[in-house]
Design a protein that fits this description.
The chain is mostly helical. It has one domain. The chain is built from 15 helices and no strands. Helix 4 packs antiparallel against helix 7.
């Protein structure tokens, strides 16, 4: 399946034909349904199929202006157009969750690069603010993880606008490390939580999202220094939101230690 997705990604990068791009969208939907059919998460599959195919039809019909750019961003689930992803992730686990957050986005990212719109940078910046504010209202570990992944993907796409080669490298690095992390998570909403996971998503130095954000910030610094300072302040907000994990982890084994 990974080889097939890489083939579709290469195909979408080699051409700018709308029909071929729409065919890639359809094949990625089929791949996702094929991978999740044994999990019996039918509500997630139906939601995903309806959302993706409706957006695919809009992509074909609204092939003018910047509408296609917004449609692709919504298909990927980029903030602030990520409102639909929680209806999918609530019923998928382990490798299927990892696939949804990484490989499923690869062909869409390469198509997004080809319909570049510089004004989308401010939309991505607004999406980061929405993510940080939404983190304060979430209490489910899994939803926090999905939102953190969405926020990191926003950073990667902002880096694409600045430097394509750096961002492709970062995306590959991000995919490999997320494959190593997410496959350890089980169906429970709490028993996978450990100190390693918390330190990774708290943007600790040399962790997964740390390099993604540092390289993206270094590219944005060439473009707008004021925006970089605002983003650094927002990264501090993200650390505050994940303090909920720290508090829970601190008291998680209290009773067992007492005994």
């Amino acid at each position: 399946m990974i080889s097939f997705v890489l083939f579709l990604s290469l195909l979408s990068l080699m051409t700018n034909n709308m029909i071929i791009w729409w065919s890639v969208f359809l094949m990625m939907t089929v791949v996702f349904i094929f991978l999740n059919k044994n999990v019996k998460s039918y509500s997630s599959l139906i939601n995903y199929f309806v959302i993706q195919e409706s957006l695919g039809l809009m992509f074909l019909l609204m092939n003018f202006g910047i509408f296609q750019f917004f449609i692709i961003m919504m298909k990927i689930g980029v903030a602030p157009l990520h409102f639909w992803i929680f209806s999918i992730t609530n019923n998928i686990f382990s490798y299927n969750l990892m696939w949804f957050l990484t490989f499923q986005k690869l062909p869409f990212l390469l198509i997004l690069v080809q319909i570049f719109w510089l004004g989308g940078l401010m939309l991505l910046f607004f999406g980061l603010m929405v993510c940080y504010l939404q983190m304060f209202s979430l209490k489910n570990y899994k939803n926090l993880l999905v939102l953190s992944s969405t926020e990191s993907f926003n950073w990667i796409i902002m880096g694409v606008f600045m430097s394509l080669i750096n961002s492709v490298y970062l995306f590959i690095y991000y995919m490999i490390l997320m494959v190593m992390l997410i496959n350890k998570f089980s169906k429970s909403s709490s028993n996978w939580l450990n100190w390693e996971t918390i330190l990774v998503f708290l943007n600790m130095p040399f962790s997964v999202t740390f390099f993604v954000k540092i390289f993206s910030l270094s590219e944005i610094f060439k473009f707008n220094t004021i925006m970089m300072l605002v983003m650094l302040m927002m990264m501090f907000l993200s650390a505050l939101t994940f303090s909920y994990w720290l508090i829970n982890m601190s008291v998680k084994f209290y009773d067992k230690n007492q005994m």
